[in-house]
Target: YetF C-terminal domain-containing protein
Amino acid sequence: MDLFEISWRTIVLYGIITVVFRFMGQRGISQLNVIDLVVVLMISELAVVAIEDSEKNLLYQLVPIFILMLIEIILAYIQLKSQKLRRILDGEPVFIIKKGKIDNKQMQKHRYNLDDLLLQLRDKGIGDIQDVDYAILEPSGTLSVLEKSERKGSTSVFLLPLITDGVIQEKHLELLNKNELWLHQSLKERGYEDVTHILYCSYLNGQFFIDIKKE
Model:
């Protein structure tokens, strides 16, 4: 393979793959779920093969790249419509520390050890676990922390969604010591009869924030 062949294939593939990733959406590396990561790795490998294998027509070597892009776009669209699929692919936030107590079961379940916890707390300038009221391990692997000093004067913890895409988040209600009956009654008092019409609903210090789905 001559230098010219390598050069023009590299330039063409660079441009095409840049466009492909733009079509696949704007996510940072830390936000990639399992499917995204598999697609990125496969496209990268296919691009390397296409550059090195000059005996095959480049057009045919681009076909699997575009197929992967199409699969990614279709899955992304389905995720927009299905909260269950989003949870499977992206995962859910997990409380590692709850009311000042470390949840060992959740740590073991997610293969997250004490060294990881202490490291991420130090990154946030927190040297003592006793100072932490709540800590959430996000699907991206980052840690969201609420210190005990920050909670003074507040009747709630994190601003957690109670409804997303018309689906009630029961775990978040439990953290607020509330139930679905309370939520339905509260929404009904505010003129919202059907939760499936609500795109997003959160509750903090006695105040609701509600956003309705656009038709």
